[in-house]
Amino acid sequence: MPVKQVIVIRKDLKMRRGKEIAQGSHASISDLVQKVKSGAPILFDDAEKEWYYGSFRKICLYVNSEQELTDLYEKALASGLRVSKIVDRGLTEFNGVPTFTCIAIGPHYDEQIDVLTSNLSLY
Question: CA 30 to CA 24: how far, in whole Å?
Fold first, then answer.
């Protein structure tokens, strides 16, 4: 079964392209970084193994508001999916205000993620 990670970025923030890329990158590695920081043995389920040792397939989608991103984040959590939330500290954009910029869902099997994201557009 195909495995992917979906990165969802807030388009309403009108971030510079480099900022968008940095925020998506933070989201993509956040789950793995948290596992490493925990100090516990790093164990991967089958979907993670396939993704980490395979293609690193990523799909970038967008939403148009913080509320849409919050709703999607909460739905992913409620569905038992791995989801990482990125809040920028506001040091280079957003005038020093911490800002919820994006999430990463997965890696998971496509059908698990598509239930939540199939209505979103490609970035």
Answer: 10
CB distance 103 to 76 below 8 Å? yes
- Residue from 37, 36, 32 nearest 48 by CA: 32
Identify the pLDDT of residue 55: 84
Give the chain's domains with CATH numbers: 3-122 (3.40.1490.10)
> Cα(13)–Cα(109) distance, rounded to whole angstroms?
29
Contact criterion met (CB below 8 Å) for 98 and 104: no
Q: Is the pTM of this model over 0.85?
A: yes
Question: How many Å separate Cα 16 from the centre of its chain?
Answer: 18
Q: What is the DSSP string of 34-72?
A: HHHHH-S-----HHHHHHHTTT--EEEEEESSHHHHHHH
